[in-house]
Structure formats: structure tokens, C-alpha cells
Design a protein that fits this description.
316 residues; Arc Repressor Mutant, subunit A; D-Maltodextrin-Binding Protein, domain 2; 7-stranded mixed β-sheet; elongated
């Protein structure tokens, strides 16, 4: 019988292609990880991994053994979870991380309703402005592209973005009626978004590449961006769902312009570690999934209806 910790080490290295990444994934020193791989290869009776350039990849035997190792670990996880479900209590410390855009309002309500059902759970929430590199047992709710990570990823939905400005700003500078009229307007940038190539999309007219706006103000928090837009300092892209929540609490702070045009969709992703998670974590994940707003799923459907090809050249 193979040692389960050695199988976990092998599967992690195959997934990440790196001993360094797997040390973070498993929380083990590199020397311990290397030893577990050597011991497993000795037990199997042949090498399983090859080093190619800067990556570690499985050889023919490793590819075959990886499939069986993954199945074994999955069965072990299912067995542990089945036994864990026999326990009636959901308790202990729950560590949550959340993109700063969600912390105020909706996410706090999700946590509050979860605690009403499971009063023995102790919760800590960390606000994230950058995506976490690793998680021990907790979960992270992230807004935006995830990029490369060793964490598991579960897409919960997407948020469409619209261009917003304050009534006072529009009174001074006018309301753009086409994407071409955005040139020259002052821009409230969030986390360097305008440094990327911005493309506005229209259901019928296609795509419009937006020239790099003049950044009047650059911030790293969505609430500060909203404050700057409400103060009339410029225009900015805001997820429409978040803008609607803010306008419910503070009507008239800003207005949507070019309502038929939308900016890039922002995915909402649940991130969590590999392996068997404590019941309190799995219970919160289930509660979070059941609390996903319908609008997030609607934006995913909208994304498939927007043409991905063709460019809109008019509108000046």
C-alpha cells in the first residue's frame, strides 16, 4: 500500500510542474517533498518524473500512475467527507478572504446569515486587494481574472461593467452619447485598468476599442473609485451590480452613460485549497453558492450574446 502523503506530493508536483509551487500547495519544506517523491518512486520501482527546462513533467509511467493516484486520493477525500457528514455540528474557526469590492454589504450579509445557522463557528474575514497566493483551509471570493494559481477555481458568475459619471460632471462636460465621444474625458482608474486595452461591447454594433483614457485619478479600492466619480472628478468603469447596490443606499450619486455599451466582463471566482476541507468550510461554500445573486448568472448569459468579432468604427 502506498503512503497517502507520498501520493499527495506526487499529484501536486504533476499539477504544478514545480517543487517550489508544490511546497506552497502542501505546506512542506522542499527537502521533505523531494524525499516523499523519491520514496514513492522506490515503492513503485521506477522513475515517475522528468525535469524539462524549468518544469517537472511525468514520464510515461508517471502519466499512468498519476491517473490512479488522483483516483485514490479522490476516494479518500470522499470517504473522509462521508464520515464527516455523520457529525452534526459545524464549528471551529472559519477563515474567509474576500475581494474588497464585495466586503461591504452583500458578503457581510452572507456571513451573517451563515452564522445565524451555525452559531458555534468563529469567523475571521480578510479584505483582499490582490489575489492570495495560497490558502490553508479557508476560501477566497475574488473579482476579476485569476491568472495562474495552485488553488482550485470555481466560477460563480460574472459582472458586466458600465461607464458612470456624476450629474455634476455631466452638467459641466456633457453626457457622451457614443464611445467616440469618450476621448478626452477625465478617467477614474481602478487598479491600473485603463493601462490595459479596453474594449466596449454592444449587442448589435460589435466591439469598440477604447483609446487609453486620460487618468485623472488612480485608486486601488472600488469604494474610493466610487467616491471620486460621485464627487465629479471624472468617468469610470464600475460593475453594474455593484453600482446598483451603491445607488440603492445613495440615490443620485452617479449615473450610467452609454447604457447599451458594456466593458469587459469580470468573473467572480471562488478559490479554495485542494484536498479534504473541514466541514465548516464546505458548509460555508454551499451557503455561498446558494446566495449568488441571479444577476451574476445573467451576465454570464449576456456574455455569450455579445459578438466577439467585428469592430465599431463610428460614433464620433
Amino acid at each position: 500500500m502506498y503512503d497517502l502523503s507520498e501520493l499527495e506530493a506526487f499529484v501536486s508536483v504533476v499539477r504544478t510542474g514545480s517543487l517550489t509551487a508544490s511546497t506552497r500547495d502542501l505546506g512542506l519544506p522542499k527537502s521533505t517533498l523531494s524525499r516523499k517523491i523519491r520514496q514513492l518512486e522506490q515503492a513503485v520501482g521506477q522513475p515517475l518524473l522528468l525535469r524539462q527546462s524549468r518544469r517537472i513533467v511525468p514520464n510515461d509511467a508517471g502519466r499512468v500512475f498519476y491517473r490512479y493516484s488522483s483516483d485514490i486520493l479522490e476516494l479518500v477525500t470522499q470517504g473522509r467527507e462521508a464520515l464527516d457528514e455523520l457529525k452534526e455540528d459545524v464549528s471551529g474557526k472559519l477563515e474567509l478572504r474576500c475581494h474588497e469590492a464585495f466586503v461591504r454589504g452583500w458578503f457581510s450579509g452572507v456571513v451573517r446569515s451563515f452564522l445565524e445557522m451555525h452559531g458555534d463557528v468563529r469567523v475571521s474575514i480578510g479584505t483582499q486587494q490582490t489575489m492570495p497566493g495560497e490558502l490553508d483551509e479557508g476560501v477566497c471570493l475574488w473579482l476579476g481574472e485569476v491568472g495562474q494559481t495552485t488553488l482550485r477555481q470555481e466560477l460563480l458568475g460574472s459582472l458586466s461593467q458600465g461607464i458612470y459619471g456624476s450629474p455634476s460632471y455631466f452638467e459641466r462636460y456633457g453626457i457622451p452619447t457614443s464611445p467616440g465621444q469618450l476621448d478626452g474625458h477625465r478617467w477614474i482608474d481602478l487598479l491600473g485598468v485603463s493601462e490595459q486595452d479596453l474594449v466596449l461591447r454592444h449587442p448589435q454594433q460589435g466591439n469598440y476599442p477604447l483609446a487609453t483614457p486620460v487618468r485623472a485619478f488612480t485608486v486601488d479600492q472600488s469604494c474610493v473609485q466610487g467616491d471620486a466619480i460621485a464627487a465629479g472628478r471624472g468617468l469610470g468603469l464600475i460593475p453594474r451590480w455593484l453600482a446598483d447596490r451603491r445607488l440603492e443606499a445613495h440615490p443620485g450619486q452617479f449615473e450610467l452613460c452609454l447604457p447599451e455599451w458594456q466593458g469587459p466582463l469580470l468573473p467572480v471566482t471562488l478559490l479554495y485549497p485542494h484536498g479534504c476541507l473541514p466541514r465548516r468550510v464546505r458548509a460555508f461554500m454551499a451557503h455561498l453558492r446558494s446566495s449568488v445573486p441571479d444577476e451574476w448568472l445573467g451576465d454570464r448569459v449576456m456574455a455569450t450574446a455579445v459578438p466577439e468579432t467585428g469592430t465599431h468604427h463610428t460614433g464620433t
